[in-house]
Structure formats: structure tokens, C-alpha cells
Hints:
By secondary structure, the chain is of the alpha/beta class. It has twelve helices and 13 strands.
Amino acid sequence: MPNLETKYMGLKLKNPIIVASSGLTNSVEKIKDLENAGAGAVVLKSIFEEQINNEVSHLINRDPQNQYPEAEDYIWNYTRNNSITHHLNLLSEAKKETEIPIIASINCMSASEWTVFAKDFENAGADALELNLFFVPTDRKKTAEEIEQLYLKIVSEVKKNVKIPVSVKIGFYYTNLLAMSDKLVANGADALVLFNRFYEPDINLDKLQMTASEIFSSPADIRRSLRWIGLISSQLPKIEIAAATGIHDGEAVIKQLLAGAQATQVCSTVYINGAQVIAGMVKDLQTFMAKWNFKKIDDFRGRLSYKNIPDPMLYERSQFMKYFSGKV
């Protein structure tokens, strides 16, 4: 039987399938079901500072009597503490009831809260932290360098305050993703999660209203991360990578490992197909390894990365030159 064990951020996983931060991981019962289905680890549902702030604003605006600094301070502290306590209790209970690694997820707006939340989760027993890192740039006067420096400062400050490993979940909106990845590593990131799937707006033409677009990924979404995992794993071999978005079956898991990922994160396919889809992914991985006589994952990890294929231009090419040249 092939050995599916892998290491991610120093954590020993029974297999490289991690359930991503979502509503799938917001209760101990759900996490136990995911473990029983075969998940190698889970990332807890993120604590969002923005959500806490919105709850505070709603409570304050609902009652005119709250228009006093003392009342606002009380509501803010109560709401914040209640939210963080809920997440910390979930983490503590999940650690007691399961044996797989539990990774905490943080998404903040103010730089100070990142380090506070990070330390709280470490003290509660988190095996690692995932920083859900992205701000929508709405100020046209703010340069890309300024925004990137903010990201790097957050990672650096969190790493100064905790001893557990820290991953950074990022998007692909960078002019030079390789350079940004290198900077994140230099500032302490132990791993990268490629890529974050963001809320995206849509327009309802029947109601002439703004609405949310499709929240689930599609299998085709794997292609974007596959390119960058192949490139980054080759040029920055010391950084570990978890592939995310578009991983809907065992074949997608295998492809990301071949490109150089240490682990893969799944979400949409579990919502759509149920936790049993994880068992199918595990079986597909075992079948693939047996077919090619791979004893362990490191026997084929990165086998088709940028540096290991005869024609690395397949990773670099961005235009459909050959395909479309005969279509006009």
C-alpha cells in the first residue's frame, strides 16, 4: 500500500488533503465527520475582524441610546471578546475530539489585531496559523509597493509573536508573483496557499441590484494555480505550498502534487458532493501511486514542475499562438 503521508509546515499529515477554511469547519461535529472521511487536516473557519466591526456598527445604530463613547466601547469589547471566545472554544474542542492537525485562520483589517488573534490561537493549541491576506485596493493614490509592504509587515509581526508555523493565503493579483512570494518567505512565511478565492460581485438584471457571483469554484479553476505552483516550487524550493481552488477530485490533487505542492485544500467539492468525496480522492491517489509504483508522495512530488520538464516554456507561455493561428 502506498504511503500517503506528507509534511506541511512541519505538521505530519496522513495524506495531503486539507479541508479549507469555510462553513465546513465551523463546528466540532463537522470536523469529526471530515476526519472520518479521510481529511489529513482542516483549517478552521476564519475569524473576520470586518465581520466583528459590522456587528458592532449594527448594534450601535439599532439603538439611539448607544450613541455614547462608553456604550460604544462596551459593545465593541463585548462583541469582539464573544467572537474570539467562540473561535477559541471551537479550536480547543476540535483538538480534544480529533487527531488531525487543526490550523486556525485569521482575516483582519487593522495591523494590531493580527498579532493579538494569532497569539490567542497559539495559546489555545492551534497547530499552525493561516493568514487570509488581501485588501481590495480602492485608493488610486496608494501604490502597489505600499500595499505589498503592508502585507509583509503583517506577516513579519505575526511571526515575531508566535512560535507555531504560519502560512499566507494570497490571491494572484500581483505584477510579479514570484517576487512577492520571495518577499513573504523572507518575512517569515512558512508556506503559501495558492490561491485565495474571493467574494466577487455580480449584477442582477431583473432587479437592477448588485448581488454575489457564484461562490463555488469549478474544476477549470485549477489551471491558474497549477502554473504558479510549478513555477514557485521550482524557483523557491524552500517554501512549502498548499494548492487551493478548483480541486474537485483525485486527479486534481495528483496534478497539484506533480506540479510541486506539499498539500491541497478542498472546499467547493465537499459542499457539492459531501464529505465522502475526500475518500474518493484518497483512493484515486492510492491507485495512481500503485500504477506508477510510487511508494511515497516524495517519489513524484514536483516531477512535472517548471524545472523538471523538458520544455519549461509550457509554464511560461501566456498566449494561444499555435492554437488560434489556424482559426482565422
